[in-house]
Target: Phage Mu protein F like protein
Amino acid sequence: MSSATSPPPRPPSDSVVPPLIFRHDAEALALEDEAARMAAGPLRNQLDDMVQEFRLRWVREFGTLRTKGDGSILLRLLHDLAQALSGVSFDPHTALLDYATRAQQLGVTQGFTEAGLEAADLPTPLPLATHTYVAGVVAAARDKVATAARIAPTLTGTFNQTVVTAATPAQHAANIVDRAARTLTNEHLNQGITTVADQVDGTPLWIAERDACVHCLALSGHTPGPDGLFDASATFGKHPLGWLPEGGLTGPPRHPRCRCRITIWFGHDTAGAESITHDWAGAIAEARANGDVVAEQAAHTAAAAARRSAAYDLPAALRREAERSVLKGWALPSEPDSVRTDAADRLLTRITNRAGYSPSGWKVPASVKKQTQRRIDKGTHGATPFPPR
Model:
């Protein structure tokens, strides 16, 4: 997570994602981390303190953590543990709603910036479904803590078999809140960007990280259909992802802890995109009128960059990058090796059937195909860490 004193993050040198979007993604991740910390942190801190307290007490009563507790001393300790768990107090409701609102507002700000427009105030009320979801999250978390308190007096054995086992459902409660905070932040950030896209007649464009899952990668570089929904069946894997949000796939997240985002795409209207980004001709004329040679040269350079950017087929580039990720095996450790291997094998088959062209229209280099096939044949393709940035 970046801080106020950290240097701005830099995208990989070969990334097709514009640096502005990369910086915006870092801002969103910082907000997501803060949301998870504020929503789940109070419960985690209470549980950590509680486990530490009973760890010290266990050693004092039984000698070592590996010693099995017994008799009235164990019964009293577990009774006190159940009481402590019953007394846990936490209410992430306000924090979850607050960060959902902040994420949506950040999405609006980022959306206008990515569209090259001055930020404007747009209403960002949270839908009823978000309030309902948060209420369900809080109820589920409290139920887990109640379960922990209920099972505590029934356990026997060592410290791990009793205290740690009893605390596990409560730790799961913190995980539930953490996951909800991250999902809400991502979802409402993208809702904010979508709101701007609707306002400025832009098109939402899906951007996945290069080590995203095989489902998210299949959506990268794509836009919604006429119904406003992204293709929920898209995947590089054998089967589409079963999870689908109520109302259809309007944008990220595709799954819990998804790190995808959308940006606003105006297509390939070079003149229109340049005028939206900035009045470069006016900037050049103004600098020339002021006799500011440095400013005039800077404006010329920026105008040339704008022309290149406006004509750049970002959706196609993102789709190529997603296919390259599958062929290279770049993935997070959470994705099984077999999933990435199968995805690469399936993609290679499609490329062969298309006379060397990938589904995105990329003429895949022979060296890439050979390296991928060699890793698949050796059983070493799998999910490999993304190279250092």
User: Anything to note?
Assistant: Residues 270-310 form one domain. Residues 93 and 138 are 7 Å apart (CA to CA). The beta strands are 203-207, 261-265.
